[in-house]
Each structure stands twice: as C-alpha cells, then as structure tokens.
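Researcher: Next sequence.
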Amino acid sequence: MGTELLPQYIRDNYEVHEWKHACAILKQDFPNEWNDIIEVLKNFHFRRSWLTVGGGRKSKISEAIDSELYSRGWVEKQFDTEIVIDKNRIESPTHQVDCFKNRVALEIEWNNKDPFFDRDLNNFRLLFELRAVSVGIIITRCDNLQDIFNELGRGSSFGASTTHMSKLLPRIEGGSGGGCPVLVIGITKNLYIED
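Model: Next structure:
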C-alpha cells in the first residue's frame, strides 16, 4: 500500500486510503503538489468555535484548507469540455473542482449531502479519461468526529446522510472513480482543538 509514502504525522493524524497508486504518482510525478498537500495537512487543525457556528456557502474547515492551497498557487477550476459526434458539438461542462494545480484535483467535502461524493468521483473519472487530471483527492471527515458533534449539541447538523468517510469508501470501492487514481484523506479527532 502506498500510504506509507506519507509522513508519519499524516498517517497518525488522518485516516488515509488510496486507489490505483495515487500516493506514488503524486510523490513521483507531482512533487510540488505533493509537498503542498503535506504542508497544508501538517499545519491544519480545526477549532471548536468553527463547529459551533451555523453553515453557509463554505465551512470554516473547508476555507482553512483551500485558502492555504490557494496561497500556494492552487485554483478553483471549471473545465470546458464538449463531445463531438459527426461534427456536432455537444457541450459537456464538468463541475468546478475546489482546488486544482498541474493535473491534480482536490475536493473538500466537510458536511455536504453525501451525493456530492458521486459528483466528485464522476468528475475525477471524466477528467482523468480526458487527460486533464492525473490524480483526484478528497478530504472529508472521519466517522468518529460524530462524538464531538454530539457533545457540542451539533450532532443533528452532521447527520448520517452527510459527507463522511463511511459514505465515501463504498463508492470508491465500487468503482465510482473509474480509472482515476484517488487519494482519500479523513480528518480525525486528533486535529481538534478546544478554543
């Protein structure tokens, strides 16, 4: 398994899964993007105060991760794609990727409805087949964070039908990512700070 390529700190503080040699591809072919991701993950913690505020367009957790990636040259990216059949062009736009840099696509799914995983994996599959993406990464929350949410009285806001690890893994294991190498990073209790 290629997850041993990740630094020990990452393996100790995140739940990590990979498919189709995603870590090896990232480390070997995309060393700058690999280093960006490692550094952002090493510096990330999430605060109690971020969990006690209501939702909005983007959670404080997602904002903390993607703003660090944006400062390293990553961008939100919409791909303009189309299908051509007998000279007839049919637009086939993809969904916007949260963070993109040099053929590496990264999505942060903290507390969306779980069908967002289907959207992300389908996007990775299509963009991989079109040679626009070489590796897809999803950062989400681990199931054991539900204990923290319950303690804070926010358990119902982070329900069973929202994005978390046990909703994602069966989708990938069932082939939803197609041929795209996928790295999944789960945020664990170890990264929680009382403030």
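Model: The CA atoms of residues 19 and 182 lie 5 Å apart. The chain has a mean pLDDT of 89.
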